[in-house]
Amino acid sequence: MKNKVARDIPDNILKQMTRKPFNGVTYGHPIAQRVAPKVRATTGRDKVLSSIDEVVAKTVADGMTISFHHHFREGDYVFNQVMRSIIDQGYHNLTLAPSSLTNVMNDIVVEAIKKGVVTNITSSGMRGSLGDAVSHGLLENPVVFRSHGNRARAIEQGEIKIDVAFLGVPNSDNAGNANGMDGDAAFGSLGYALIDAQYADTLVLVTDNIKAYPNTPASIKQTQVDYIVKVDAVGDPEKIGSGATRFTKDPKELKIAKTVNDVIINSVYFKEGFSFQTGSGGAALAVTRFLRQAMINNQIKASFALGGITKPTIDLLNEGLVARVMDVQDFDKGAAESMKDNRQQQEIDASWYADPANKGAMVDQLDVAILSALEIDTQFNVNVMSGSDGIIRGAIGGHQDAATAKLTIISAPLVRGRIATIVPNVTTVITPGDSIDVVVTEIGIAINPKRQDLIEQLSHVPGLPIYTIEALQQKAEKIVGQAKPLVFTDRVVAVAEYRDGTVIDVIKAVKD
């Protein structure tokens, strides 16, 4: 069956997952019943167990769904410790449901798959050795990729039923009151973990810092927590923001960032009280710097900044250029440390951030979103999941969620090395073209023809070259040549959902 973005979705996948094919970005006003976790009443004063082995033996059984968060990013120590215990104790047929999978987790997950410990995975994304293994068919069942907002929706509606959540935290008291703001491995917002804490049947906190009771402020509360385990270290704070917050000196990235800024400030959305979301990485941070100067020059202040937060965004807050920061994840130490002392930096959970099935997500209020891409095609569809070789090497993250902004901008180079970024058809559709308004490259921009208002607003901006998306694709192809078609088998190794739970695309095993 072809869905709304002309992708063939096998009938057996839709039947197996009880899903519908993607049918567009309009949601209507669905009514859904939320689930509730089981609650095992806890008596006594202390929930602290002696070891991870002990808590795994107490909580895990074959066939369960277990979850983790990825706020420690590449500095995570908890995931591997828990998974090692699970493997060594001989559990099987588990579903792994973390908010995302980072490179530091890859090897042990591959081992768990090979030993039959893990037979299903749902996550925001995967990379490296794990992405390569899954792309070659190692996992028995297809991975299900969900955006951050869609994961929250799926948990709330029981599509992901978490039996045990293992959440690493930089502090907790002996009853389970915890936050992400204090301790040697503080990472700031616990936004993605808060959904797990609310809906898991059993909640285990792993920490290296037991504080005096009652520990406040408490993002996770003792009413939610079953067990606490103290370990020597939960994470390396120096690796939490690894690679995410570099200030670029690359002329191409700087040119793209300046052009993104030109698009924003010449649109009707650049006005007093506008809101925005930027990502991490060199080009995104450069956009923040250009935008800061434009706000000063035009005496414009933003109402809020959203999403994964970096120190440059916190600097805007401290300068009074942004009134509020709505923080679901911190990408560097500066942003994480700020949350402890700044009341205008609000921790939000993933549902508040981006769930399309609640009573109003923050992304619904976004004026401007600046996002990246691995590929964009001539229908403005975006791929952030599969590489040019067909291997899984990315994450949906909040891409689909933030793309609902009034002005969604994709910033990307025309080519990367000898690989075109703008192509006739993306390898995997993750964010539909109907959500994308402007594509910005170092040589110029393309505006979605559906946005005639933006074409009119931007067509007279001096020094802003405007092309059709087809023209940009042809320029990219002229530089690198026509790519050879990728060859896949018929086996589906992953399913990409849209943020409403419909199937937007499938990923098939690469053919060796």
UniProtKB/TrEMBL annotation:
E.C. designation(s): 2.8.3.10, 4.1.3.6
Signal peptide: none
Localization of this protein: Cytoplasm
Family matches, as Gene3D superfamilies: Glutaconate Coenzyme A-transferase
GO biological processes: acetyl-CoA metabolic process
InterPro entries xref list: Citrate_lyase_asu (IPR006472), NagB/RpiA_transferase-like (IPR037171)
Keyword Phosphoprotein: no
Matching NCBIfam families: citF
Encoding gene, per UniProt annotation: cilA
Claim: Metal-binding is one of the keywords in the record: no
Alphabetically ordered keywords of this record: Cytoplasm, Lyase, Transferase
GO cellular component, one term: ATP-independent citrate lyase complex
Pfam families (alphabetical): CitF (PF04223)
Domain of life (superkingdom): Bacteria
Source organism of the structure: Leuconostoc citreum (strain KM20)
GO molecular function, one term: citrate (pro-3S)-lyase activity
Catalytic reaction list: citrate + acetyl-CoA = (3S)-citryl-CoA + acetate; citrate = oxaloacetate + acetate
Name used for this protein in its record: Citrate lyase alpha chain
